[in-house]
Amino acid sequence: MKKIGRLERPDNNGSARMFANPVLEKISRTHISVPIAMFIGMGIYSLYWGVTTTEISFLGAILLLIGGFLTFTLVEYIMHRYLYHMEPDTHLKDKMQYSMHGVHHDYPKDKDRLAMPPFISAMYAVVLYFVFDFIMGESAFYFLPGFLVGYAGYLGVHYIVHAFQPPKNFLKVLWVNHAIHHYKDPDVAFGVSTPIWDYVFGTMPKK
To answer: What's the domain count of the chain?
Structure first.
């Protein structure tokens, strides 16, 4: 299975062909609603099991949900800054970085590649459950939904930022920051769903 490498284009419109194999090319794309629905559905299912099989208090459950959500926003920031924008100083790193994120910077208007394919998204959710279960036991039934809702929210925000014009309200900062990240300075504005960690770590764009 031959993978097609980096393509040089004078603009950022259109879509990159990532795989020579048409089947792989097809399954590398997804409509944004598919992974969002998967994450929300898995979160609801996990929450159901938490309510019916554990004795965690209501307050404890709420705190775990909030903790899961905030943890996702931090993971989103760290992965975007240090994994997706890692220095491609070797051939392997260059291919990994381009496949994971570089292609999105070259073709930011390609709406079919704003999320991982469904089978990878499902694998992520399963792996996350086992990791959280290993760390915190039955509390994972509440922590995981918060994390997955954060993930679904990130996907939704990322999609509408690319697909729609910015609103005339406080949410406009998300559009402005992401536009700066894509078209002016890729070393700032790593938070997509929230700018909170850019404030914390000093990567907010300068006014």
So the answer is: 1
Among the listed residues 9, 5, 4, 2, the one whose alpha carbon sits nearest the alpha carbon of residue 109: 9
Q: Are 188 and 180 in contact (CB under 8 A)?
A: yes
Whether 207 is covered by a domain: the verdict is: no
202 found inside a domain: no
**C-alpha distances in angstroms, 8 versus 3, 16, 105, 150?**
16, 10, 12, 34
**pLDDT tens string 105-125:** 667 666 666 667 777 888 888
Which domain, by its residues, includes 89?
Answer: 32-98+114-161
Q: What is the mean pLDDT of the chain?
A: 82
Question: DSSP string spanning 104-122?
Answer: HHH-TT-GGGSS--HHHHH
Q: Classify residue 79: in a domain, yes or no.
A: yes
Query: What does the alpha-carbon distance between residue 140 and residue 27 come to, in Å, rounded to a whole number?
Result: 30
- Residue 127 tokens read as 């792996």
